[in-house]
Amino acid sequence: MGILSAALITLIGVNWLSVGIAAFRLSPKGSAPLLDGQQPFVSIVIPLRGIENFTPETLASSFALDWPSYELIFCVADEHDPIIPVIRNAMAAHPAVRARVLVGDDRVSANPKLNNCVKGWHAAEAEWVILADSNVLMPRHYIQHLHAAWRSNTGLVCSTPLGSRPDGFWAEVECAFLNTHQARWQYTGEALGFGFAQGKSMLWRKPMLDAAGGIQMLGEEIAEDAAATKLVNRLGRKVHLVAWPFEQPLGRRSLEEIWSRQSRWARLRRVTFPFYFALEILVGALPPLLVGFAAAAAAEMNLAAVAAAILAAIYLPEIGLAAMKRWRLSWLTLPSLLARDLIMPMIWTRSWLSGSFEWRGNTMMIGTETSELEQVPAL
């Protein structure tokens, strides 16, 4: 009984600690960071493939940044991609912003996103280069937030995606995954000295990465953000996060899409950081519930009352964090949190097995070892 009680207190305590760290680490929404020194010229490399629900809006946001001098380099692999005329229309609507489109595919790795970025990286003229996903909704102070997070020991600054504008229950579930779960734990890891890169937005000092072997070094791992984390650590530097994560508008989502996306990310974490991934089974509501049920059964306590108390102890701080930071909250939030925590153990278990997944039209095969990855060509 004593061991079970101690385990339950530990699981809930760690959860509270992560909420507290995230609450302290994140700045108020919308506040512009203060910068010391100059505002250098910046290159923003954006890989694109196809047109998504919010493409016009996310594209337009990149042309409206409050920064004195920057360039946009849009990278497209296929010359027939329908996104190209959309980009050119946005460029024509914002002639004052320096922008260009580069078309072609450099096969430096099995990662199609990285291959698409290579030409943009080599074409970038600035010392500071941001690799930004096309579905990031950039705030006006996007570059300020990234630069403000750079410190003397920084090797890379990045941002987690913050889910917004969900349409339907499963999109709410994705918000539950992205915001008060993944973002919270990523900020906790950074605060404890275990910063992990996130590929949504990455600020690099170009001479530093070039001296370490160049952008192709990000192909050493299955995912470019995992490779970035390990490369920065080898350089004796740290991965730091912005003080406010950037939004990713979601729109409508299905259970199949949630399962596919979360399974893909989980498998990538499993093969790149297996030790840390193994610990993920301990987060969420299920572990403390199971321990609490065992303790309640031993003490002949009411299981329903114990379950209600544990769920309140887990979810109220999480909902409080979302309310404090003005993240997505609705009447579907609590059911979404419950659905997320039921799905997570299933995804974790499935991720230890090999298999393939789809990423933007590319079939990727992951084995049970970190070295087992291949991009399966389309027939």
TL;DR of this structure?
The chain is of the alpha/beta class.
Describe the protein's topology.
Layout: H1 2-25, E1 42-48, H2 55-62, E2 70-76, H3 83-93, E3 98-103, H4 112-123, E4 128-132, H5 142-148, E5 154-159, E6 161-167, H6 169-191, E7 201-205, H7 206-211, H8 224-234, E8 238-241, E9 246-252, H9 255-272, H10 274-279, H11 286-299, H12 303-324, H13 333-350, E10 355-359, E11 362-366, E12 373-376
Parallel strand pairs: 1-2, 1-4, 2-3, 5-8, 6-9
Antiparallel strand pairs: 4-7, 5-7, 10-11, 11-12
List keywords for this structure.
single chain, 379 residues, alpha/beta, Spore Coat Polysaccharide Biosynthesis Protein SpsA, Chain A, seven-stranded mixed β-sheet, 13 helices, elongated, disordered C terminus
Reading off the top of the CATH hierarchy, the class of the domain at 39-168 and 197-246 is best stated as Alpha Beta
Tally of separate helices: 13
What is the third-level CATH name, the topology of the domain at 39-168 and 197-246?
A: Spore Coat Polysaccharide Biosynthesis Protein SpsA, Chain A
How much strand? 15-25%
Mean pLDDT: 90
Radius of gyration: 21 Å
Unreliable residue stretches: 368-379
From the helix content, strand content and strand pairing, which structural class follows? alpha/beta
CATH architecture assignment name of the domain at 39-168 and 197-246: Alpha-Beta Complex
CATH superfamily of the domain at 39-168 and 197-246: Spore Coat Polysaccharide Biosynthesis Protein SpsA, Chain A
Please outline the major beta sheet. 7 strands, mixed
Pfam families: Glyco_transf_21 (PF13506)
Keywords: Glycosyltransferase, Membrane, Transferase, Transmembrane, Transmembrane helix
Subcellular location: Membrane
Membrane topology: Multi-pass membrane protein
